[in-house]
Design goal:
Elements: H1 21-44, H2 48-73, H3 81-93, H4 100-112, H5 120-125, H6 137-144, H7 151-163, H8 170-186, H9 190-202, H10 204-217, E1 231-232, H11 236-242, H12 250-255, H13 264-271, H14 275-280, E2 283-284, H15 295-300
Parallel strand pairs: 1-2
Length: 314
């Protein structure tokens, strides 16, 4: 491997970019299984502990569904592009109110013009004080915690306006929602729906989404390809909530967006054999713990953006 640059697509092993519908379907099924299991446990064994645990797990899996839609924008669910979008919409995007095709238009601009004024994600945040990093620890929590208390509804409303259901989706989306509504009615489940789907959607999910969204590209020096995006590799618990479906390997994703999410860890391990990547890739251990190599440290450092590079190979 040439260690003065990153390998190009042709130099990656073919299996790194192979799309497996079976693996995609398994992971989507796993998300939904956790959602229904959490609802079942919380309703069968009511109490504060089971309720809170259900809220956390369901919000984390709602986050996963959003990121499944993200993968579908890169046609990483299945090889047939039409069915890729259908599976994404029915199983991931529409349940959380979004459109795969509409999100793709915005997201491809984000990849093409990353961290510039033509990047719609960057442009929306660059003049908003709540997205300016680094900031003080007090300001970090002052801008983040309100998402748990209702501010997240505003953020989700903005997202729905930008990447929500299209008019062209309605011929399929309306029957989809009608069937879901009928099923909830027949099961007498509207109270459970409000408590275990709408409530985490408007509180914990926006909190998780904000932390991950900020972690992807902010609080970074942005002086070269490998320090305008980060990987967060040291915490499986953190990844479950903030970086599901290997979204914590966001730097690897931006270098190789054609690699499906279930193959990102293998590509990351492969890249660690490259001295250029090992030296310059921006990598953190955890998200919100106040440790030296955390995203939180990057976000609240007043001097050097908390620059953390990947550990040198032994």
């Amino acid at each position: 491997m040439n260690e003065t640059r990153l390998p190009n697509r042709l130099e990656l092993a073919a299996e790194f970019s192979a799309v497996s519908f079976g693996r995609s379907l398994f992971l989507i099924t796993f998300d939904w299984a956790l959602i229904f299991l959490s609802i079942g446990v919380a309703t069968s064994y009511p109490g504060v502990f089971s309720f809170v645990c259900a809220q956390l797990v369901i919000a984390a899996r709602q986050h996963s569904l959003f990121l499944t839609m993200h993968e579908a924008t890169h046609y990483n669910i299945c090889k047939n592009r039409k069915w890729n979008d259908h599976f994404s919409n029915f199983l991931a995007a529409w349940p959380v109110g979004f459109s795969t095709e509409r999100y793709r238009t915005r997201h491809w601009l984000h990849h093409r013009y990353l961290n510039t004024d033509k990047d719609p994600d960057w442009f929306r945040k660059k003049l908003d004080p709540s997205w300016q990093f680094p900031m003080s620890k007090l300001d970090f929590w002052r801008h983040t915690l309100p998402h748990l208390l209702g501010k997240g509804v505003v953020e989700m409303s903005y997202a729905l306006r930008g990447i929500g259901i299209r008019k062209s989706d309605l011929p399929l989306a309306l029957p989809f929602y009608a069937v879901i509504a009928a099923a909830i009615t027949l099961a007498g489940g509207w109270q459970a729906f409000l408590l275990y789907w709408v409530l985490p959607y408007g509180t914990i999910l926006p909190f998780l989404h904000r932390v991950r969204n900020a972690s992807d590209h902010l609080g970074l020096p942005k002086t070269h390809l490998l320090n305008g995006t980060r990987n967060v590799t040291g915490s499986r618990v953190g990844a479950f909530f903030f970086g599901p479906h290997n979204a914590n390997l966001h730097l690897v994703h931006h270098v190789y967006p054609f690699v499906p999410w279930y193959r990102l860890p293998a590509v990351h391990s492969f890249l660690l054999q490259n001295a250029y990547y090992r030296e310059y890739a921006h990598e953190n251990d955890v998200y919100l713990l106040p440790t030296k190599r955390s995203v939180f440290s990057d976000m609240t450092s007043e001097t050097d953006f908390g620059i953390q590079e990947t550990r040198k190979a032994a």
